[in-house]
Amino acid sequence: MNALYNIAVRLYDLGIRAAAARNAKAALLRDGRRLTFPTLASALEPGRRYVWIHAASLGEFEQGRPLIERIRHESPHTGIVLTFFSPSGYEVRKNYRGADIVCYLPADTPRQARRFVETVRPMAAIFVKYEFWGNLLDELQRHDTPVYLISAIFRPRHIFFRPWGGTFRRMLRCFTHIFVQDETSQRLLSGIGCREVTVAGDTRFDRVTDILNTTVEMPEVERFVAPSAFTLIAGSSWPADEEHYIGWFNSAPASTRLIIAPHEFDAARISALRRMPEGGAITLSELEAGQTPGEARCLIIDCFGKLASLYRYADTALIGGGFGAGIHNINEAAVYGLPVVFGPRHEKFKEATDLIQCGGGFCYTDRTTLDSILDRLSTDTDCRAKAGQAAGDYVRSQLGATDRIWNAAIAPLLSSDTDSDPKKRHS
């Protein structure tokens, strides 16, 4: 990579270290990176071949998970190294059993990139959706390692398509093949000379369908919502979302129930959420411990990992993040045949636009528009059923990305590794 890129990477790394003194996430990233190479040294098996899969955070991990599990099922002798950039992904999935090694991605300096690639020596590398680390890509190319980008989506404003984006365009050319979500992305890449591109779709649809088929029943939640004429679930909720929907809930009929699954929480956040709904709230932990809801009409989810199963107990889902960096996973709710409601910052997500167009999704920009949407969905059962049907049909129409990527790239790669003894295949 050029000097400016390397300076920027080093400055960013120094910024993380400086921020670690006062920021918990930065501290986790700093400390986690220090453990990357010791973890690899102790866990890599001599003679075994590994596929390296990188996900920026938890959402990208769920996007890549169908392919990870396909590799594990179809080629169990192949090792899997899974890296994360963000603590939000690593801390939740550091014990994920579908990978042999889970660790943080090291800083993308020339030295660290060389050390990582020469330590893992992956037979292939798979990047999920985005994250373009120039030195790592250069090292993979130098080692003639096949590199794939999956479930990618590109827009005209991205730096690759700007006059000053030459460094990043060169990164794209390090990929052996790019699997994109839509034809617009394919056309954009073709315009800058990237020809090894296939429209495969988004593996997230395969993942949420897998979740639907293995959903966990929660009898306590089922009893909580049983008296409800309408249950709204707020998935991956942020304070900016709560400023809008809590007001609607407080004015809704007494038979209405609300489930809040905050995107991030600690004791202070849970305490603040308890005070917002009129009549109070109960947490899932309390409910599971046998406490009765009393007058509480609101359930607060105070643990991670259960949101995808909770959607089955709601009539409509409001997905958070639309007043921040961007909405969270709306497919997890839509797969249950629920209408999905979200804020205005959804332009990065093709599925949001598609769901609005097909009638399964609704965007709100303020309290007035949200009240109008929720009033209609909570009282007009025909409208709600039609929207839910449209959302479920849309998800089903998008299935198959994992198969396309597997058949085009991963299966041929693994099948070419014909020697069944991994020690003999090590080079």
Please tell me what the overall shape is. Answer: globular
Instruction: State the CATH architecture of the largest domain.
Output: 3-Layer(aba) Sandwich
How many strand units? 14
What is the helix content?
40-55%
CATH class of the largest domain: Alpha Beta
CATH homology group of the largest domain: 3-Deoxy-D-manno-octulosonic-acid transferase, N-terminal domain
Terminal Cα separation, in Å? 27 Å
Q: Which percent band covers the strand fraction?
A: 15-25%
Could you list the spans in which at least 5 consecutive residues all have pLDDT below 50? 419-427
Strand-pairing-aware structural class: alpha/beta
Number of helices: 21
| CATH topology title of the largest domain | Rossmann fold
Largest sheet: 7 strands, parallel
Total domain count: 2
Radius of gyration: 23 Å
InterPro entries: Glycos_transf_N, Glycos_transf_N_sf, Kdotransferase
GO molecular function: Kdo transferase activity
Function: Involved in lipopolysaccharide (LPS) biosynthesis. Catalyzes the transfer of 3-deoxy-D-manno-octulosonate (Kdo) residue(s) from CMP-Kdo to lipid IV(A), the tetraacyldisaccharide-1,4'-bisphosphate precursor of lipid A.
GO biological process, one term: lipopolysaccharide core region biosynthetic process
What can you see in these coordinates?
Pfam families: Glycos_transf_N. This protein is an alpha/beta fold. The protein is globular. It starts with a helix and ends with a helix.
